[in-house]
Design brief:
alpha/beta, Peroxisomal Thiolase, Chain A, domain 1, two-stranded antiparallel ribbon, globular
Length: about 400
């Protein structure tokens, strides 16, 4: 059901920024990156940190992220939200921030994230500790899976069995992402990639090789939202929130009813209905490609192609630069960067595409962009539709 309290185009994103990315300076903390991205996004919007009265933050390395960020920025917001639902939480927070602004609970909403998971691992302190993620499950652990890779590998295997999807088609997703990354100066990966290289790489969890799996990087991001009325007077071209939608189907992968159908069906249906669009109206898609199968599943579930046809849809460069549907134009989690929870980077890139600020990778005439987040093991899904002034 579409939330009747959220009105299409009444709130806009007016600031968007990344923190330092990749492998950051030793000694920086997740909160340093979260604050760094926040200050950059506020500067992008031309808004003082003192004007922020709504904070929305989450993280895998930081408990009470919203409270912690408020302390770090030395502000006392009227409203804060520090919820956690995996990588989709930031798209969900867009809907929450829109509702809070429309309800008068805050007027300047800041959504932020930061992670040093790569630096922490490289320093020998182990991977970033995941808050609320079970370390032992009697239905999974005894079989020795590599989590979360093996969960997504199960979905890929089922899709291949049921629909005839091939390894080459999965590899096309990684190759397309790399072609976009080569146009992005801040992307982690700097070398071309071929289908044969994807297929010949080290197996991580069959059918995935290392190139089917997302990067492990540091990084953070932030976006700033205000009312459409306030947005009209600020320095940047407003990017309006046209629609939002969420969906949850399970917690652990073994409770998923159908490994080939995700809650993206629900989240995108509601977001598109609120925005008054269909898939054919979308100019660019930024989605959570933690693994190559994600791109295929989400494109199907959003209606860009029929269920089972995603493998063919992503082939022959259709989602690469110059293709008919630009997907993950920053290089995605597969080649740009993946700082643990990737959802905020999707929003930043979608905003920049609507503004026309992406340089060599800019898609022509972008009016509508979709940012889609994924959390857990295909567990939680959240879709945001963004548009420029011509969409109002």
């Amino acid at each position: 059901m579409v939330n009747p309290g959220i009105n299409r185009g009444k709130v806009a994103i007016v600031g968007a920024a990344e923190s330092d990315l990749g492998e950051v300076t030793p000694g920086l903390t997740p909160m340093d990156l979260m604050a760094q991205a926040s200050l950059r996004a506020l500067d992008d919007a031309g808004i003082s940190v003192r004007e922020v009265d709504g904070i929305f933050a989450s993280g895998v390395q930081t408990r009470m992220a919203g409270v912690h960020l408020a302390e770090y920025l030395k502000i006392s917001p009227r409203y804060h939200n520090g919820s956690f639902s995996g990588g989709s939480v930031f798209e969900t927070m867009v809907g929450d921030a829109v509702a809070a602004i429309q309800a008068g609970l805050c007027s300047v909403a800041l959504i932020a994230y930061g992670s040093t998971q790569r630096s922490a691992s490289m320093a020998g302190s182990g991977p970033a500790r995941l808050i609320g993620i079970r370390t032992y499950d009697p239905l999974i652990t005894p079989f020795g899976p590599r989590m979360p890779m093996s969960s997504y590998a199960m979905a890929a295997s089922r899709h291949m069995y049921e629909f005839g999807t091939t390894r080459e088609q999965l590899a096309e997703v990684a190759v397309s992402a790399r072609k976009w990354a080569l146009k992005n100066p801040v992307a982690w990966e700097k070398e071309p990639l071929s289908v044969d290289e994807v297929l010949g790489a080290r197996i991580i969890s069959s059918p995935f090789t290392k190139f089917d799996c997302c990067l492990v990087t540091d990084g953070g991001g932030a976006v700033v939202l205000v009312s459409a009325e306030r947005a009209a007077s600020l320095r940047r071209k407003p990017v309006y929130v046209l629609g939002v939608g969420d969906g949850v189907t399970h917690y652990e992968i073994h409770s998923m009813d159908d490994l080939t159908r995700t809650a993206t069906i629900q989240s995108s249906t509601n977001a598109f209905a609120m925005a008054g669009i269909t898939a054919s109206d979308v100019d660019v898609v930024e989605l959570y490609d933690a693994f190559t199968i994600n791109t295929i599943l989400f494109l199907e579930d959003m209606g860009f192609c029929a269920k089972g046809e995603g493998g063919a849809f992503v082939s022959e460069g259709r989602i690469a630069p110059g293709g008919t549907l630009p997907v993950n134009t920053n290089g995605g989690g597969l080649s740009y960067g993946h700082p643990g929870m990737y959802g905020l980077q999707l929003l930043v890139e979608a905003v920049r595409q609507v503004r026309g600020e992406c340089g060599e990778r800019q898609v022509a005439d972008v009016n509508i962009a979709v940012a889609h987040g994924n959390g857990g093991t295909l567990s939680s899904q959240s879709t945001v539709v963004l548009g420029g002034a011509d969409t109002l």
